[in-house]
Each structure stands twice: as structure tokens, then as C-alpha cells.
Amino acid sequence: MSDNLPSSPARTDVVAAALELFAERGFEATSVDQIAQSAGISRSTFFRQFGGKDDVIFADHEVLLTQLREFLDSPHDNPWLAVCDACLEVFENFAAAPEIARRRYAVVRGVPSLRDREITTVFRYERLFDEYLRRALPGLDPLDAVSFAAAVTAVHNHVLRRLLRGEDASASQLRDALTTTRERFGLEESAALPRDVVVAVFPRAIPKAELARQLRAKLDD
User: Fold this and answer.
1) Which of 5, 131, 135, 173 is buried deepest, with most CB atoms within 10 A?
2) What is the reported pTM?
3) Nearest 10 degrees: CA dihedral of 43, 47, 48, 49?
4) pLDDT tens track, the chain, 221 positions
5) How many CB atoms lie within 10 A of CB 168?
6) How far apart are CA 31 and CA 47, in angstroms?
7) Residue 118 · residue 140 · CB < 8 Å
8) Are 41 and 6 in contact (CB under 8 A)?
């Protein structure tokens, strides 16, 4: 996958300046003019780059979602693994600047409207993964797609929140947790989980679609 967020230094500086002001004065008490002055840009430039105070908080997410959409639109041998790689990319982006990520986390926790938007943003990642799996695996049961998307998103958020709280959390821990998730969905071999063995005999001339139907029926039984 590509390197971390392709954001300009000026944009990063504005985000950092805004978060510092939010931490010092509070989100509601900080004006756009104050952010622009602190970042050394004009008010019009601020609005052109972000649109509003809320958008500064979630600026990284907007770029990440675009980046992940492009990544998932490219060919992948294993769509399940591709979703996990996308989760790792999100984590590594925030882990690359943990102090800024923690400051953002603290601001969001203290403002109900920002918490609501964060919930919506998290769901956008989940929906992105769900829709990708359905496209990449035609015929996939929608319940399997949404269940896996929700599981990997929840695992990612759990490890990320540990990082944001200053606890021990790393990309390797997330990678191991995502591997365990794939194992639980039967997508990865695991010595710790029992394996089902199915033996079936069918006529060589049977249509593949009928073979799949009969196997599915036996497995459901």
C-alpha cells in the first residue's frame, strides 16, 4: 500500500495549530480567525482548505477514506486481507503522529457534536469495507460482508484507542489481532481452532453451480 497521508506541511501545521488552541481554550471558544492567525494563514485560505472548525478535526479521515478507496479499487488476491491491510494503514497514519492524534481524541471526547460526527466517520470506514467485499467477492452473503467489516473496524478502533490513551499499542499488535479475526471467520488456518472436515462424492459431470448448491446444503445441515 502507499505511504502515509499525502498532506502538505501547511495543512498539517493548520491542524496542529487548531488542536493546540482547542486544547487551551476549548473548541467552542476558539474562532476560525484565531486558528488562521495562529497558523499564519488568511481566513479565506482556512475555509478553502477545510470549510469549518469541525472539518479541521476530521481532515485526516477525509484524506484517508479517499486513499483507502483507491487502494481497495486496485486488484487484490485476497480481499479479506486487503481490508485488514487498509485497517493497518489507518492505524499507522495516526501512530506516526501520536501526540496530535491524542490531542484530537481529547477534543472530540469533550464535545458531543464531535463525538456524533466521529461515530458517523467510523461507520464510513465500515461501509467502505463492506461494499468492497461485496464487489470483490460476487455472491458473498451480505451478512458475512457486514459482519467482517464490523469486526475488523471494531478491532482496529480498540487498538487505536489504547494508543490514544497512552497505553501499549502497536501496529504489530493490531496485525496479530486482525489475523485472529480472520481465523475466527475461518479465513485463516489456526491450530487453536477446530477444523471441519467434509468428504463429498459427486458425479464428474455435475454442473459446478449444482455442486456448490449441494455442498452449501450439506454444510448448512
Assistant:
1) 5
2) 0.78
3) 100
4) 444 444 444 778 888 899 999 989 999 999 999 999 998 889 999 998 888 888 999 988 988 999 999 999 999 999 999 999 999 999 999 999 898 899 999 999 999 999 999 999 999 999 999 999 999 999 999 999 999 999 999 999 999 999 999 999 999 999 999 999 999 998 986 555 555 666 677 777 777 776 777 787 777 76
5) 7
6) 12
7) no
8) no
SS3 for 90-158 is HHHHHHCCHHHHHHHHHHHHCCHHHHHHHHHHHHHHHHHHHHHHHHHCCCCCHHHHHHHHHHHHHHHHH
Amino acid, res. 44: S
Crossing angle, helix 79-95 and helix 142-164, to 10 degrees?
Answer: 20
How is 180-210 classified by DSSP, letter by letter? HHHHHTTSS--TTS----------TTS-HHH
Q: How many CB atoms lie within 10 A of CB 127?
A: 13
Q: What domains lie within the chain, and their CATH numbers?
A: 9-184 (1.10.357.10)
Task: Look at the alpha carbons of 181, 138, 142, 2 in this order and tell me if their dihedral is positive or negative.
Answer: positive
